């Protein structure tokens, strides 16, 4: 049963929606001073007052939504919240969520639902993810009150060398940019441990879409137009993304068929993951990569392994605990941001909250530059949250009344530059209380900009996540190119539980390269520290700072008074197009709410 919760606060207290201090505040008129004439008016004309105030607020929200659309067609707009009773899903991108709902209704597990969601999302958002990439996943097992992380990220080929891109004119594209994909083995290992429905049945939706036609979403059609020249120049991409009738890229409303990928899914559905890593698909798949200049070998595919590990966690106020991904994810520095902000609490001074958040971001990215990814041969170790990082940041924020433009104040040995990549995050909550937050990626838009002809798989370019010497001012050791190694990622899919009940409190994640860290922390802080309902927090205009460049980037419409105060702290600000997209599921005594970020026309559903 679905219950509409539009304007949930208006009939109860009536609250006026105010944008102030960089966040939404809800002001209860019943708490006004007893001598205030407005209170006297309320007591004398209650019905008229409530009607007038509700009209004003509805007008304000509608005006705000229209204003967002007018300023930029990509800007987020408010969407009313739906309350679900049993289950929910949310995604940073648009896809066919009914397939996932059907899995739950058939008695499938949250693991089954995640496999369907990822395989289908890879078709509707091929620019962001697919089985040519990899993922990081956080799983919460409600029955056993245990959390797990599945690392199915890509490893570099065994033939990787530190100077392999020295002579490359364009290392981001082509086979040399591709790492060994982990997506399919990730599905397999997830299903072996937590799946309920037959493995083969989980690929039926993807096969059906590939054969009958994948509806082209607005973000995908816009991407095809933007990358039209590159697509037409690539025979393998042209075969996938161009309408054979017109010779041009598909447009919104078209249905895109992918017969080669359908055959690949059918083989994997029948024969399991081995068909891809050490079976009938492997040899030709490797040859396709070699034909595009890549160095992935048959042994690289055969030796690939996913890893189950323990999530990195931290206790939160109000009986909360957050679980997120250790390295190669950025969980350690991500938790330091939350630790700093929850330790400081909420300030009543308009710009102080944002000054603190931005300083925490800058320190986090400074510390992240020293992170190094794991090797395939490494034993699985437990990475625990280290609060010393947050304690150091807290001393700096308490001491300084202004920001610094000197990178050395945030990192003693800054080691990397940051390049932008794309991703997708999916949040799932099952009827039995189990939950998954998973972030998947092929890195840049359309990955390495080529596909395997035999399998129809679009390949990742995650080798670009390493610190490549040719793009650095000097040689650095952290996150350096090496054989059979994972690059560091900004992925931080997260699950928050209530430690009193052991039930899921929130499932959250984001997409958008380096904006993942800032967007996810911003959504969590707005909901849990600033007490903003998630449907507002997910559309709230965002800031971003990644230390280099030394600039606060802001989305159009972010409160100008806050930007002015940040300038007084010494910050330089520049406007940016929305580059991050979030997904949230939250659980309360009122029910389950799910929100997909409309920056990328995100999806949310449930029952």
Automatic annotation (TrEMBL):
- What SUPFAM superfamilies does UniProt report for this protein, alphabetically? N-terminal nucleophile aminohydrolases (Ntn hydrolases)
Top-level taxon in the UniProt lineage: Eukaryota
Question: Where, by residue number, does L-glutamate bind?
Answer: 153, 441-443, 465, 513
Annotated Pfam families: G_glu_transpept
The catalytic residues are 423
- By what name is this protein known? Gamma-glutamyltransferase
């Amino acid at each position: 049963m679905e219950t509409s919760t539009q304007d949930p606060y208006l009939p109860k207290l009536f609250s006026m929606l105010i944008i102030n201090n960089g966040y939404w505040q809800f002001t209860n008129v019943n708490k006004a001073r007893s001598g205030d004439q407005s209170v006297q008016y309320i007591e004398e004309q209650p019905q008229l007052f409530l009607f007038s105030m509700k009209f004003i607020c509805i007008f304000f929200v509608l005006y705000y939504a229209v204003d967002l659309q007018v300023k930029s067609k990509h800007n987020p707009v408010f969407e009313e919240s739906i309350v679900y009773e049993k289950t929910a899903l949310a995604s940073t991108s648009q896809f066919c969520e009914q397939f996932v709902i059907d899995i739950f209704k058939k008695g499938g597990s949250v693991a089954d639902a995640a496999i369907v969601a990822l395989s289908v999302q890879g078709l509707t958002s091929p620019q962001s993810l697919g089985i040519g990439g990899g993922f990081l996943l956080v799983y919460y097992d409600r029955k056993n009150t245990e959390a797990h992380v599945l690392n199915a990220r890509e490893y570099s080929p065994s033939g990787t060398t530190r100077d392999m891109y020295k002579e490359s004119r364009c290392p981001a594209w082509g086979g040399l940019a591709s790492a060994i994909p982990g997506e399919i083995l990730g599905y397999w290992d997830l299903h072996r441990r937590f799946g309920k429905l037959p493995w083969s049945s989980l690929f039926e939706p993807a096969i059906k879409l590939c054969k009958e036609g994948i509806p082209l979403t607005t973000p995908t059609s816009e991407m095809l137009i933007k990358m039209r020249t590159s697509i037409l120049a690539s025979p393998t991409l042209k075969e996938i993304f161009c309408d054979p009738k017109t010779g041009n890229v598909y447009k919104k409303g078209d249905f895109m068929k992918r017969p080669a990928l359908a055959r690949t899914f059918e083989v994997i559905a029948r024969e399991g993951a081995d068909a891809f890593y050490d079976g009938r698909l492997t040899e030709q798949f490797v040859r396709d990569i070699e034909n595009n200049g890549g160095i992935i070998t048959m042994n690289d595919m055969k030796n690939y392994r996913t890893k189950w590990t323990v999530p990195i966690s931290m206790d939160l106020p109000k009986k909360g605990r957050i679980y997120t991904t250790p390295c190669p994810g950025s969980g350690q520095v991500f938790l330091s941001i939350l630790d700093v902000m929850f330790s400081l609490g909420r300030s009543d001074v308009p710009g102080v909250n944002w000054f603190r958040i931005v300083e925490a971001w800058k320190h986090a990215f400074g510390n992240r530059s020293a992170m190094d990814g794991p090797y395939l041969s490494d034993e699985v170790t437990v990475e625990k949250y280290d609060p010393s990082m947050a304690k150091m940041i807290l001393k700096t924020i308490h001491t300084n009344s202004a920001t610094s433009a000197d990178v050395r104040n945030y990192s003693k040995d800054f080691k990397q530059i940051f390049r932008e990549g794309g991703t997708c995050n999916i949040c799932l909550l099952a009827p039995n209380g189990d939950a998954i937050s998973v972030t998947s990626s092929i890195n840049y838009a359309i990955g390495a900009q080529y596909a395997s002809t035999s399998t129809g798989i679009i390949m990742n370019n995650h080798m670009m996540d390493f610190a490549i010497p040719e793009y650095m001012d000097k040689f650095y050791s952290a996150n350096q190119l090496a054989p059979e190694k994972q690059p560091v990622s900004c992925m931080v899919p997260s699950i928050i539980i209530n430690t009193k009940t052991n039930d899921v409190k929130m499932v959250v994640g984001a997409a958008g390269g380096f904006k993942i860290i800032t967007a996810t922390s911003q959504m969590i802080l707005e909901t849990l520290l600033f007490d903003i309902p998630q449907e507002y927090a997910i559309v709230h205009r965002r800031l971003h700072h990644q230390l280099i460049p030394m600039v606060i980037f802001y989305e159009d419409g972010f409160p100008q008074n806050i930007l002015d105060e940040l300038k007084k702290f010494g910050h330089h600000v520049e406007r940016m197009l929305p580059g991050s997209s979030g997904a949230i599921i939250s659980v309360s005594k009122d029910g389950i709410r799910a929100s997909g970020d409309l920056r990328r026309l995100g999806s949310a559903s449930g029952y």
